[in-house]
C-alpha cells in the first residue's frame, strides 16, 4: 500500500485525508522564525505546510549553489516534520510569488534569444543543471522515503503563460529522473482556458486551482474540468488567497477577517486548501517582484505582509482566530491550540557617524571600473540586481546639447558635473533633455545611476527585453550615440560596503552612503523607521533588509533580531534622492504613509 496517493480522495496510510495547509516561505524569514510559524500553523488546525523554492536564491551565479541559512530548504522541511506537519513543495523553476523574476535567475538573461519556460534546449539545459543539484536534496524528504513531503509541483500557473505540454512533460521527466516519486501536480487559475493550457491532466498529473473567493463556484469549475477528462480527483485549491500583495504608491490591500473565514468554511466543505499566505514574511534584499503592465510596470514593496493570518513579523492577526474557528466548525477533530505570541521592541535612535557621496567613493567600490565602448546591461557588468552607475565624459561645445538615454530600465537618475538633472522612470524613460557644461571647461562629466526596481514575476513580459536592466542601447548627445563608458556596480554586498571610503567627501545632494555605528545591550525583532528618508535600501550588519521609498504605503523596514548583535552594530543606508539622513531609529510597529 502506498503511504500517500490521490484517488477520489487524498489517501494517507489507507485513510481519507482532507489537506488543510498554509504557505510559509522559508526564504522570506529567518530560520529562528520557522518553528514559531510552523507551530502556529499547526495550532490553527492545519496538517500541512506549503512552500515555493526560488531558483534565483539557490543558484545566484550559474553553477554556484547556496543552501545555507534562510536558504536551507532541507532544514525547513525537517523542522515541519518534527512538528508533525506534512509538506507540499513547489520546486518549479518559475514560482511567481511576487518574487524577483518569478524565481528565475538574472544570469539566465546572458543567453541572447533564450525562450523561458519552454522546450528551448538552452533553457532546459539550465533547468537540468539546477535540478541535478536541487532534486537529490529533496528526494530523501519524500513521504515514500520516510519524510513529510506528500506532493510536488511541476510548474506554476503555466496556463496563464503558455500551453506547451512537452515543456511540462520534460520538466516532469527531469524531476522523476533525479528521484521524485510522490504525486506531482500543476496549479492554475480556475477557468477553462488556463486549465486546458497549463495542465497535464491526460497524463494523470493531478490538477489544482488557485483562487480566493467564490469557493463553491470555483470548485465546480474544477470538478467539471476533471469530469470532462474522466477524472474523479478531490478538489484542491493550492493558493487560497487570504490577502494580497502591495505595490509602491498604492493603498494597502486588506480583506475582512470574517469574509475570509466564511469562504474558508465553504472551501473545506467541498475539498482541501492551502492558505496563501499563512505567514508572508519579507522580500529581503532586491528580491521584490514587479507587476507587468502594458507601459507602467508596478514594482512591489519590501514587506510581504500580505494581510495574512500571521503578519510580517509573525504575530497572529484577527484573521488567524476567525479562520481557526471556521476550521473547527468543518473539521471538529482537527487539533488546535493557542498560538505562540511575540512582541517587537523599539531599540532606540542613533546618529549617523559617517557619510560619503557615491560619486566620490565610486573608484573605491571596485578594483577597477568596467570599461566598454558601449554601455553594458546590469546582467553583463554585474549580478543584475541593485544599481549600476554609468560614468562618461562628453565634449562641451559651449552651449546646450540634446541628451537622452535610449532603452533603459528601470529608474534613471542623470547628473552632470555632480548636479542632478532629472529622474526618469518608465513613462519618461528616453525623454530628451538639454545639458550644458560649466564655464571655461570643454567637457561634461555625466553620471547615470540606474536602479533595477524588480523584474516582473507574472505575465507576458518574462521574455521581454525590458527584463534586462540598465542601459540596453546607448546614450545620445546631439543626434549621435556616445562612445566610452565606465561601469560601477552598486549591489550593497558586505564586500562592496567594506570598500566604501567615508573620507572621500560628503555631498548630501548626491546619492550617498550613510553609516551608523552603535552598541546594543539587548536585541529583538524591530522595525527601522524610514519615514524621513527618500528612496534607497538599508543594510544591517551586512544584510540587505530591503528597499524603502517615501511614496509608501510602507515607511519602515522589518528587521529580525537575527540581523542584530549584542554589542557593536553597523547600519548602512544607501539614499538616492538627495535627502540628508541624520539618524537611524528603531520602532516596535511598522509605519505607513498617512
Automatic annotation (TrEMBL):
Its EC number is 3.2.1.23. It catalyses: Hydrolysis of terminal non-reducing beta-D-galactose residues in beta-D-galactosides. One of its GO terms (biological process) is carbohydrate metabolic process. The active site is at residues 157, 239. Residues 375-490 form the Beta-galactosidase 1-like first all-beta domain. Keywords: Glycosidase, Hydrolase. PROSITE patterns: GLYCOSYL_HYDROL_F35 (PS01182). Residues 511-569 form the Beta-galactosidase galactose-binding domain. Residues 10-329 form the Glycoside hydrolase 35 catalytic domain. This is Beta-galactosidase. It comes from Vagococcus silagei. The lineage of its organism: Bacteria, Bacillati, Bacillota, Bacilli, Lactobacillales.
